[in-house]
Amino acid sequence: MGDSFTRLLKPRLPAKQSAFLWGIRKAGKSTLLKQLYPQATIYDLLKSDDFYRLLDAPFLLREDVLAMQASELKQPIIIDEIQKIPKLLDEVHWLIENTGAHFILCGSSTRKLKRGAANLLGGRAWGFHLYPLCSAEVPDLDLLRAFNRGLIPSHYLSTNPGRSLKAYVQEYMREEIQAEGLVRNLPSFSRFLNIFAYSHGELTNYSNIARGCGIDAKTVKEYYQILIDTLMGYYVYPYSDANSRDTIRATPKFYLTDLGIANYLRQSSIKSLKGTEAGASFEHFILMELIAYRDYREQNYQISFWRNKNDLEVDFIINRAQVAIEVKISNKVAKEDLRGLIEFKRRYPCAQAIVVSLDPRKRKLTVGDIEILIYPYKEFLAGLWAGKILLC
Does the predicted model carry a pTM greater than 0.70? Predict the structure, then answer.
């Protein structure tokens, strides 16, 4: 197995176009940009000399750029970890407006920028998001390896993934949370990470988590928002329409951005592709594929889940019930496993019903007048990235 991957995201920009590139730490943003723009000028705010120089005097960025040659300005100017010095965005804005300079601004958190009312360039910069590795970027992807190590490139390849994941979480706590002053009570946030992980991918119960952490539900909601703002996770909201009286409408689920981090926090080691924990990771894996495909291919679909008051559920609904996807870690899916999908299809007969499973061959399951396509997961992923699955 090689030590590098060909990433699908290619933020090539027209002349003078600037961009933000977001992604969690170690997703590979810096590596990608160095590959795409080897001649670019880079300011890395993780380096103390760059950081303290520009923190004390943001105007020095302007003076640096004004001294550049025209040939240098043909390349984007890259500022890594832009959230560390939000005031630089005012200088960037002025330079975009008054010179031929253009920028790629990398970040692992939007929280400090949002809360500080930072200048986000008023639409002058396009937005891109780099995720952990997806199946189309990993030749011969090992599903068990992905479940246990996650798909942050260095973790997937690590010879000691446990230590790598532990160091990552500690670095996140130290660099993103403590150093940036995002919470007042660091021990309570640490307890929150450990406790919420056990309800990862399930209906979010703020009160139960609050009791476990010894804090109030309002603080728990704020902690979830910190995870979202630091790009560590996402809510998936329930699907409903005005005619659905017996569906859950308000309570979301929460998923972390990376499989390995989720399983590390809940102290889960998955030994085989079967069982409840493996099933939860399989569902999480497919969700991240759907999210990455949507963003890399510049699609605009919504992802939700469906659940009624009888606890019948479908894992993922695409857009307005155009596609319904159930994820099963089974090599022989039967109709008894698909009561939620069958019920959803009865209510929304125009929906395309899909099961992603470990079945060895693609097949069609028929229940009355309901047709459900059952895909082996590798065939589903190949079709997804080829643009043949989500035709909505």
Answer: yes
